[in-house]
Amino acid sequence: VRNLYLARHGETFHNLENRIGGDSDLTAKGLVQAQSLAWHFRETPLPYVFTSTRKRTLQMAELLCRGREDCLVIPLPELDEIDAGVCENMTYAEIARDMPEVHEERTRDKYGYVYPRGEGYATLRERVERGVRKALYLSGNAENIMIVGHQAVNRTILSHFLYRRTEDVPHIYIPQDRYFHIVSTPSRKVFELVKFG
Ligand code: F6P
């Protein structure tokens, strides 16, 4: 793979409410973001687009590949968003109100914190790396691949290439109207954040 394009799904109904996890759909704005991404990549070969198994990434990829013959969407469960366990589908405000200990401990150590019956950034890493390895294997000699992922998943993938300090990883900016263009060969490293929407 020469070029790895790393995008996040567009806006969801959960995003509107600051609600985490779950499996919500893209909003009208999220669908427009997906169309903008498709327009941006209309002349770029995209033989493989990897997503998670969540509707928001599948909807984004479906619009990205609509009407194209070269564009195969492959969902990988390894790329699913961080499992927030008992906090799935809650808002950050609800967590702070109803489970203050979760909020406090996570604020103290966001990288090391593991949600009760869920995951944390440190535990997510192994799974996401397995997903990226699988994607690279399945895409063979393809020049370009796209991953449509999630906030915590994309932070983890970026940290793999950027070697961030672990305490910075949960704070990397992962917008929904930009993608990262990553080139990572032994002799050439490029990380570009490109606006498409
Ligand atoms: O809010 C969207 C989301 O993808 C959640 O599903 C996930 O729990 C969260 O982002 C991860 O971001 P943070 O670690 O900053 O809470």
From TrEMBL:
Q: Which positions make up the signal peptide?
A: none
Q: Please state what the protein is called.
A: Adenosylcobalamin/alpha-ribazole phosphatase
Query: What species does this protein belong to?
Result: Fundidesulfovibrio magnetotacticus
Positions spanned in the full protein: 212 to 408 of 408
